[in-house]
User: What shape does this take?
Amino acid sequence: MARHASADLPLHTGSAPRWLFDRMVDLGEAISWAVIEEYGQDELVRRLSDPYWFQALGCVLGFDWHSSGVTTTTMGALKTALSPQKHGIAVVGGKGATSRKTPDEIDASMLDVSVETRDELKRISRMSAAVDNGCVQDSHVLYHHTMAISETGTWCVVQQGMSDSTARRYHWLADDVQSFVEEPQTAICAQERRSDPLDLTAESSGETRAVSVDLVQDDPTHLKRELQGQRSLADFGTGASAGEAAGNASDGGSTRIDLTGDPDLTMPNHHRLRQADLSEKALDQLRRAYEYQPGDYEELVELEGIGPGSLRALALIAELVYDTESSQEDPAKYAFAHGGKDGTPHPVKRERYDRSIEYMRSMLEGADIDRETEQCSLERLAELEQ
Assistant: This one.
């Protein structure tokens, strides 16, 4: 599975007015039809996985170009506009509680795919959310999850997480999937980099992933016995990197790490971890994961009750005891659809902008839509050119 990209967007409240949303549905269907007729269903799914094309689509449909709502509203419009019977594409999922209905909506969709394919699509839905929420810990908690699926079984995921001030959008594409948990993204773009992420999907985090699986496969009493021995944690390879990891985890305060659903492990203010900093109760909780005996990190991520806190705790223990490396680099790159008028994150590149407008203009002129809607959309594009 390849996560194609992500984008940071300002959080905006409110919703699209009905008169606008209805038009977004109509124009969204017309543009989708044009792509399907010209290039096929799979190409539309692929384009939705591209953050630049997705952003341009949201702009042309008439929604705020830089608002977090462009994600939820655009996907909501496409969910209303597209159907398996007419277009050969289903859009499932949504915002909040609706996102958790994605597996049921996959079953309820009229897509002509096998039971095995449906089961795999449901697993992909769970895994894409688990990886973006738990393996890429960038301060954004998912609250929106959607999938676009063609009748050939090709899919993309568009989901969004929220932090205090921004929303970050993640795109996934079913294209040459090698691993759910090691650098599944072909490109990640965002408005800003985070200073203290934990990226367990990075190639450099590979040893940490392997040791995390070993930790839950092994009898937890073995780890507990090691940590309760005469040696201090420094004798187990605790160096500057482990200290930095502890410092990042604490954020200057006390962070409670959830190992199995309950707050068990507290990271203190001081940077150098000490033996007393690891709760015996937290280590005892490893037994619940031990009973499942996951075969690899992907299976570990899939386990019920294993969330961001669990994965972070295991990563820190792996680093403390075995001196493994966990990437603290934000996988997002500085990029945005067309830049910003104030030069942040980079100046608007007029050539790229003009190409996007020309591309969307040709799409509109070739789409089967009524003259009034076409004229309104072309006038909006003309405003962007000024």
The CA atoms of residues 240 and 249 lie 14 Å apart.
